[in-house]
Design the sequence.
């Protein structure tokens, strides 16, 4: 990790970016207090492959059946409960 004061960053922005590109983390401070962190962008993950987890997820046939009133009322605010 590399620390630098805010007043020095404008003159050294190219050097800071070179450090970040090499994988280093840069902390920018103002009067000794850290205010920002510059980090390299993580490698992008591989694209998703459709159907990769086929058969691993099971959805119950009654998943969209309305909840019983006593359970449903737990999710509502007291003003919304119909008695």
Sequence:
């Amino acid at each position: 990790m590399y620390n630098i004061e805010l007043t020095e960053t404008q003159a050294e922005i190219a050097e800071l970016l070179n450090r970040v590109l090499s994988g280093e983390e840069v902390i920018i401070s103002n009067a000794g207090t850290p205010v920002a962190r510059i980090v390299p962008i993580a490698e992008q993950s591989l694209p998703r492959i459709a159907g990769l987890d086929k058969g691993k997820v099971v959805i119950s046939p009654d998943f969209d059946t309305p909840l019983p009133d006593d359970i449903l009322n737990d999710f509502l605010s007291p003003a919304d409960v119909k008695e």
